[in-house]
Amino acid sequence: MTEWPSVPLATLVAQHAPERVIPADDDTVRFAGVRWYGEGLFVREERRGSDVKAKCYALRPGLLVYNRLFAWKQSFAVVADEFEGVVVSNEFPQFEVDAKLATPEFLALYCSSPVFASRALGSSSGSAAVSRNRLKEDDFLRLKVARPPLPVQERIQAVISAVDAVIDGLLAEFKAAEAARRALLDELLQRRDESWKQSPLGKLGTVTRGKRFIKSDYVDSGIGCIHYSQIHTDFGAHTDTVHSCLPKEMRSKLRFAKTGNLVIAGTSENFDGVSKAVAWLGDGDVAVHDDAYIFDHELEPRFASYVFASSEFRAQLPAVISNTKVVRVSKDALERMTVPVPMPEIQAEIANTMDTIDRQVQSTSDEIARAQTARAALLDALLTHKIEVMSSDSDDDV
């Protein structure tokens, strides 16, 4: 098996001097980011030109770009044509790739792989306390990468692109299932008769804020807890298990949700996350973070959680949230928000129907996760030369 040379990135790429964009006040400015783990560029927000105070720079299609703060989380991409006219901050340097030696797509794959991530972390500097370690351009250019022949680079790209096409198909299926889920939930909540009532949350129970704890408090076993951020990322509509625990000595400093209570995110980085709810169905009490609320109520717990995800409920949020650096909803605002209340048997029917749909959606999500795990393993094997790679003009397979 022929070894590939290992060369500094500075021999393959040159930093591009981007064009600074100074928008007019009435322009709509689209800002891009680079997702972690090689998932590519995305438009993360739009702003009016009058609201853009910091310097911003135009993306140029075909260039290699990375996020200096999260290079160690494999935040690399190639600028696609669709991102022409989109801007980034100075945390996203761009590089021209020497076409005689490498392709931008191959370098993006290599730099987005675990084999490169540890090198990026070792050359980064910053605050580990906030999970940000900045990889400066000069340090990036000194890092070494494997440089197989161009035909081999193209073959690796082709293999991974084929896997990506499968994953993209699964993601499209997942998005369609999520859209159908939302539509079904809204439809079920519209099938009302005279037995339904509309009630403020404050009339259906009590809303209590959790108590402060931090992630460094976590221990392997002890008091089960739910951090507000886990409501966004780790749980669906309901759960009977926790992912984190706190020391038993902290019990007197904590506030707890009982079985059947909702745990509601009071804070989020975006509108979609605020007021997301999870019903706690586990045995015993669970400690709740102070950026979340505990709703002790008289509804069917799963039904209550699903109602919080409905379009009707979320349409009330813009009038009650505060939107500064993060999006927040207050205890008083939550208590004023109204929900539909059918008879208990109808609540259970709706919850059972949604649970069935959620199992189907979760099955697709699990399939995506398996495909992504397989992709990562395959990419690692290709880039570390554990699998012999034939060039794209060969009849042989990888």
Write the layout of secondary structure elements.
Layout: E1 6-8, E2 13-15, E3 20-21, E4 28-34, E5 41-48, E6 56-58, E7 64-66, E8 76-78, E9 87-88, E10 94-97, H1 104-111, H2 114-122, E11 125-127, E12 132-134, H3 137-142, E13 144-146, H4 150-190, E14 197-200, H5 201-204, E15 205-209, E16 223-226, H6 228-233, E17 238-239, E18 244-246, E19 256-257, E20 262-265, E21 267-268, E22 277-280, E23 286-288, E24 292-297, H7 301-308, H8 311-314, E25 321-323, E26 327-329, H9 331-336, E27 338-341, H10 344-383
TL;DR?
The protein is of the alpha+beta class. The protein has helices spanning 104-111, 114-122, 137-142, 150-190, 201-204, 228-233, 301-308, 311-314, 331-336, 344-383, and strands spanning 6-8, 13-15, 20-21, 28-34, 41-48, 56-58, 64-66, 76-78, 87-88, 94-97, 125-127, 132-134, 144-146, 197-200, 205-209, 223-226, 238-239, 244-246, 256-257, 262-265, 267-268, 277-280, 286-288, 292-297, 321-323, 327-329, 338-341. The strands form 9 sheets. The protein has a 5-stranded mixed β-sheet with strand order 15-24-20-22-17.
